UniProtKB/TrEMBL annotation:
Keyword line: Heme, Iron, Membrane, Metal-binding, Monooxygenase, Oxidoreductase, Transmembrane, Transmembrane helix
MF annotations from Gene Ontology: heme binding; iron ion binding; monooxygenase activity; oxidoreductase activity, acting on paired donors, with incorporation or reduction of molecular oxygen
Membrane topology (UniProt): Single-pass membrane protein
InterPro entries assigned: Cyt_P450, Cyt_P450_sf, Cytochrome_P450_Monooxygen, F-box-assoc_interact_dom
Source organism of the structure: Trifolium subterraneum
Gene Ontology cellular-component annotations: membrane
Record localization: Membrane
Protein name, UniProt field: F-box associated domain-containing protein
Protein family membership: Belongs to the cytochrome P450 family.
Keyword Secreted found: no
Pfam families documented for this protein: p450
Length: 632
């Protein structure tokens, strides 16, 4: 956390929170205001700087111009510009007897400008070249000026020599673009977006291409592999879209180049009202920064060679380059699910344009065998995955769900492992609490007796957890458990125990102990209570199993952000294993004689594709429990 002038800025590195931010569709999270203040002459007031309904309006106008069919139609334009660039470099080399020093950065900027000029301005592309010349001058002035004087309030409004140059160039660029727009008889509102599309595509494309060529020049083996692939596929012809889609080696190189040198190394967002991401409360007005370059070179994510150029990490596609999460465990098997950000096309960089590739795998921890990926799909929503078995047929199933906050409903999908086809089913009758709160990739339901079970709230409330912000908005009567029968794929609901008579200070959890479905929660921050449903689905069978005083666990108090998770009950029913999130310890508690043994959890690893392990994660311990006990 740091301050930039009077702006409080929080740098976010936790993957789950980053994912929650990038999938957030609420207009309460938007682009940081300093972009417009500092780079207003460059970025204007279009899609790159606007928020809310204004942003939605601009996106609606501009999006059709970037559909894949439109992009396919531009391949000839790119080829023509490439040929011009190739001829330019060839002439320079010939003029210097076969060896020449070439400033590729300058030439690639001219190349990207030429492509975008032809695409945006058509036969008027010569005017586009004039625009890029002025944009280059404007960018140089703005970027050097802001570092010296942007922190001084009102400085950009004073008629200094620098500001006069900026105003003059800004006026000339807008005048040129507006002239083209008027000639095409388009609405003037498109002028702002056209300017921003030109700026964003011109800069990021050139930067990405420059770094990619630098990496190829520094790694001759990969340069040879990529060249051989291109020659084999193209066979002397000008590449078309189908040819490009077959270039696996080149695609791996591009992905690795974008990982090491992202054209946009920082993503910033501003919170327009108090929000909560994961367990972090973010006050209104705070800026959130995601350091993309730092995440792309994090050894905990990418391994010990995170700083090395290794396109081989993308050999099986982008999805396999990322670690897995647990969707649940059943009958001795663990279901892993993973996602990967699709490569961001270096134009119109905005978090609502992100899409994800999701996939599933089954892992047997006893044999270390792991299945091939199944159930791959691409979506922009933040999905939660849960794993179970249809007891009537013995078929393993996964339920994927995504909360659509604007509609107060969910996108719910089911896949059977023997069919490998996702099917949409009816939405939840009530929204599961964890889903509306976090939208996490990790499982949030409990599998028991052929059903998946979620804790839910009857009336949708703000997703910020109630005890801090909305204590008056929730009553015990609103808590319910929603059940999905994996055989019939239908829902049911049942209420919590009658003894659940006070809204707990922290969210309750559901689980399985002693072959009984259970509910656990903190009571007045002094005790931990566990209820068991002796006959599953019968509300009258709720029985209070344990009420544990925190002093018995050798704790002086319950941490405000702590939660305890019951993991296992011994066969004799005397010893309970609890996981404490705050202290990251396991508690072996004998409730008959109150003996306690505390075990520190040093490392809890996330499983990746080949069954090995990657970065530490503390909150997945419950995902292994059923598999471990059944194997033993």
């Amino acid at each position: 956390m740091f301050s930039y002038g009077n702006i409080q800025t929080l740098c976010v590195r936790q993957l789950d929170i980053v994912k929650e931010m990038t999938t957030c569709t609420s207009f309460d999270l938007g682009k940081a205001s300093f972009h417009k203040k500092l780079l207003g002459p460059l970025l204007g007031d279009g899609i790159l700087t606007s928020n809310g309904t204004t942003w939605a309006h601009h996106r609606k106008i501009l999006a059709p111009e970037l559909y894949i069919d439109k992009v396919k139609g531009m391949i000839n334009i790119v080829s023509e510009s490439c040929e011009s660039l190739q001829n330019l470099w060839s002439s320079k080399i010939e003029a210097q007897n076969g060896v020449a020093d070439i400033n590729i950065d300058k030439d690639l900027r001219r190349f990207s400008g030429n492509v975008i000029s032809r695409a945006c301005f058509g036969s008027d592309y010569t005017k586009g070249e004039d625009i890029f010349l002025k944009l280059g001058a404007l960018q140089e002035i703005v970027c050097s000026w802001k570092n010296l004087s942007s922190a001084i309030p009102g400085m950009r409004y004073l008629p200094t020599n620098t500001n006069r140059k900026i105003w003059k160039l800004e006026k000339e660029v807008k005048s040129l673009i507006l002239e083209v727009v008027k000639n095409r008889k388009e609405k003037t509102s498109f002028e702002k977006d056209l300017l921003q599309m030109v700026i964003e595509g011109f800069e990021t494309t050139a930067v990405a291409a420059t770094w990619c060529l630098m990496l190829l020049a520094s790694n001759h083996s990969w340069q040879d592999r990529a060249r051989a692939e291109v020659l084999e596929i193209c066979k002397g012809k000008v590449p078309d879209f189908d040819m490009l889609s077959k270039m696996k080696q080149l695609t791996m190189v591009i992905h690795e180049s974008l990982r090491l040198y992202p054209p946009v190394p920082l993503m910033s967002r501003q919170v327009f009202k108090d929000m909560k991401f994961g367990n972090i409360d973010v006050p209104k007005g705070t800026d959130l920064w995601i350091l993309i370059l730092t995440m792309h070179t994090n050894p905990d994510i990418w391994g010990d060679d995170a700083y090395k150029f290794n396109p081989e990490r993308f050999a099986n596609g982008t999805a396999s380059a990322y670690c897995s999460h647990i969707a649940g465990s059943c009958n001795g098997l663990i279901c892993l699910t993973g996602f990967r950000y699709l490569p961001v096309t270096p134009t119109l960089y905005h978090h609502r344009e992100y899409k994800y590739t999701y996939w599933l795998r089954l892992w047997n921890p006893a044999t270390r065998a792991i299945s091939e990926k199944i159930g791959c799909f691409i979506d922009s929503g933040g999905f939660s995955f849960n794993f179970g078995c249809d007891n009537s047929t013995g078929t393993f199933k996964v339920v994927a769900s995504c909360y659509i906050r604007d509609q107060l409903t969910c996108d719910v999908r089911v896949i059977s492992f023997d069919e490998n086809v996702w099917r949409n089913i009816q939405s939840f009758p009530v929204v599961p609490f964890n889903l509306s709160c976090y939208g996490s990739l990790e499982h949030d339901a409990v599998f028991f007796n052929g059903t998946l079970n979620w804790l839910a709230i009857r009336n949708d409330i703000p997703y910020i957890w109630y005890h801090e912000d909305h204590p008056e908005d929730l009553t015990v009567e609103q808590f319910v458990i929603v059940l999905l029968d994996l055989g019939t794929e239908t829902y049911n609901m049942y209420t919590l125990p009658q003894g659940f008579d006070e809204v707990p200070p922290e969210r309750p959890t559901v689980g399985v102990l002693g072959n009984c479905f259970c509910l656990s929660y903190s009571y007045k921050e002094t005790d931990f209570i566990i209820w068991q449903m002796k006959r599953f689905g019968i509300e009258e069978s709720w029985t209070q199993f344990l009420k544990i005083n925190y002093h018995d666990l050798q704790l002086n108090y319950c941490f405000s952000n702590d939660y305890f998770l019951p993991l296992f009950l011994s066969k004799d029913g005397d010893t309970l294993i609890l996981y404490g999130s705050q202290e990251r310890q396991l508690f072996l508690y004998n409730w008959r004689d109150h003996r306690v043994e505390r075990i520190g959890v040093n490392v809890h690893k996330t499983i990746i594709d080949d069954g090995t392990h990657n970065n530490s994660r503390w909150n997945l311990a419950d995902g292994f429990v059923e598999s471990l006990t059944s194997i033993c």
